[in-house]
């Protein structure tokens, strides 16, 4: 309908202004863009709820986030393929492994390729592939992801001047890899070094003499999450801490046991507050005991057993022999070796548990 025709038509409606109708028609197209945006946001949040907020699988949610992002980023599957190509290029399929998990891209380096036994100094043969991986992790699109370096060991005990236990050894190895990556140009704020000792084994069985080579490893985890630019630490004063402790400390009233008598008025029982003198004395005694328990801190008097270096080595030998006899099914001999460990260190909880397990196995035979 042309403008002249519209004017003739609206002459019959003098109260209606043609200008308002034309402005409404000009402003109407924004509703289409608004409805599209609202529909996209609705679908986005419905998808988040479907995936579940408690256990987000980043491999599933990452393509969705990438679709809404304007920044070009390297996806985790692309990074996984690039690392696999590097492993094949340097012919290290037997020593280096890469996996794509819910934690991210996990690059696992076995001990034989990275460190000598009981040492935390990197072998020169691993420098080329570590340098290539550091260069890859510094590329645009992957340069803002958090990187966690995990050190793992087997359950064979170690006791040297430099590494008193597997905790120090695994942490030192993770720190060595972190230092190497930072020297190759990675932002130190992206990196974290963690030592797990033998608490995260790939294979449960450990040989009493040879150990388990598969568990002795260093894992570089490229997380889907971005690293935190600023570290914020909230300081709490001693007075504020005391207030929090006093607020959470149970009061004496929580331990009070009300004792009342019941009298019958007509057919209905009525509670009264009259308490006999004997019961009142019991309540006061109970309050005094509870108040003493709340005010007096618990003191642990048990002291750890002092064991010399020779006794420690002998104890490790007995414990390894006990494990070997237990796996062979000779439970009586295993109990004998575990008891010898307890003769040296009576507080050795693992030997106590193994003796109980061996006794249960003998009863089932």
| Gyration radius, in Å | 35 Å
Separate helix tally = 13
CATH class of one domain: Alpha Beta
The name of the CATH topology of one domain is 60s Ribosomal Protein L30, Chain: A
The CATH superfamily of one domain is known as OmpA-like domain
Structural class: alpha+beta
| End-to-end separation | 99 Å
The oligomerization state is: single chain
List segments where confidence is low: pLDDT < 50 over at least 5 consecutive residues: 252-268, 297-303
- Number of DSSP E strands: 7
* Second rung of CATH, namely the architecture of one domain: 2-Layer Sandwich
Written account of the structure:
The chain has 365 residues and is of the alpha+beta class. Among the domains are: 76-226, OmpA-like domain (60s Ribosomal Protein L30, Chain: A, 2-Layer Sandwich), CATH 3.30.1330.60; 309-364, Tetratricopeptide repeat domain (Serine Threonine Protein Phosphatase 5, Tetratricopeptide repeat). Helices cover 49% and strands 13% of the residues. The strands form two sheets. It has a five-stranded mixed beta sheet with strand order 1-2-5-3-4. The protein has a two-stranded antiparallel sheet with strand order 6-7. α12 (331-344) runs antiparallel to α13. The longest helix has 22 residues, at 30-51. The protein is extended and about 110 Å long. The model is unreliable at 252-268 and 297-303 (pLDDT under 50).
């Amino acid at each position: 309908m042309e403008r002249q025709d519209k004017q003739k038509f609206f002459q019959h409606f003098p109260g209606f202004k043609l200008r308002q109708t034309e402005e409404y028609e000009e402003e109407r197209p924004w509703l289409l863009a608004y409805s599209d945006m609202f529909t996209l946001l609705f679908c986005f949040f419905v998808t988040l709820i479907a995936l579940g907020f408690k256990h987000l699988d980043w491999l599933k949610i990452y393509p969705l986030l990438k679709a809404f992002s304007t920044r070009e980023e390297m996806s985790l599957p692309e990074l996984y393929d690039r690392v696999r190509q590097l492993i094949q290029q340097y012919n290290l399929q037997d020593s280096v492994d890469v996996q794509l998990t819910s934690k991210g891209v996990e690059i696992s380096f076995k001990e034989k390729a990275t460190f000598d036994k009981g040492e935390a100094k990197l072998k020169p043969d691993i420098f080329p592939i570590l340098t290539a991986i550091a260069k890859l992790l510094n590329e645009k699109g992957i340069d803002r992801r958090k990187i966690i370096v995990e050190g793992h060991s087997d359950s064979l005990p170690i006791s040297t001047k430099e590494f008193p236990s597997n905790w120090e050894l695994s942490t030192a190895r993770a720190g060595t890899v972190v230092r190497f990556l930072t020297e190759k140009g990675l932002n130190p704020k992206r990196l974290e070094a963690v030592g797990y000792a033998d608490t995260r084994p790939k294979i449960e069985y450990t040989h009493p003499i040879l150990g388990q080579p598969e568990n002795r490893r260093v894992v570089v985890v490229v997380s889907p999450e971005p690293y935190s630019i600023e570290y914020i630490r909230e300081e709490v004063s001693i007075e504020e801490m005391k207030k929090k402790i006093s607020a959470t400390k149970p009061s004496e009233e929580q331990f009070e046991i009300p004792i009342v008598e019941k009298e019958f008025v007509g057919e209905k029982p009525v509670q009264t507050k009259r308490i006999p003198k004997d019961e009142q004395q019991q309540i006061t005694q109970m309050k005094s005991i509870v108040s003493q328990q709340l005010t007096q801190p618990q003191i642990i008097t048990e002291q750890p057993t002092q064991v010399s270096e020779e006794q420690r080595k002998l104890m490790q030998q007995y414990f390894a022999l006990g494990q070997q006899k237990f796996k062979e099914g000779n439970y009586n001999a295993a109990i004998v070796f575990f008891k010898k460990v307890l003769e040296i260190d009576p507080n050795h909880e693992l030997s106590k548990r193994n003796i109980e397990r061996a006794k249960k196995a003998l009863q089932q035979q």
